[in-house]
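Exercise 3.2. Students should predict the tertiary structure of the chain below and write it as structure tokens, then compare their answer with the key that follows.

Predict this chain's 3D structure.
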Amino acid sequence: MKAVTIRGIEPELADKLKSAAAEQGKSINQLTLELIKERLGLKKGKRYSREYDDLDHLFGRWNEAEFREIQAKIDQERHIDPELWE
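Answer key:
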């Protein structure tokens, strides 16, 4: 790997880099590399982050009200009846 030195960094920029790196739990070098790659379009996306909806045309989708209704029924079924466990 090549080493590149960047000169002329103002104290304000250095402070911003340092605090941003600390917030993200990264080194300044790691953060700087990520920022450069992102700006140049070289940042790789997550490999398997796509959400698929290939079967929606067969099964449809729930709207928010339907989801809440179904989730309420599921939550109700998850209730543990103490009488059954005595």
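Discussion points: The mean pLDDT is 88. The helical segments are 11-24, 28-39, 56-59, 64-77.
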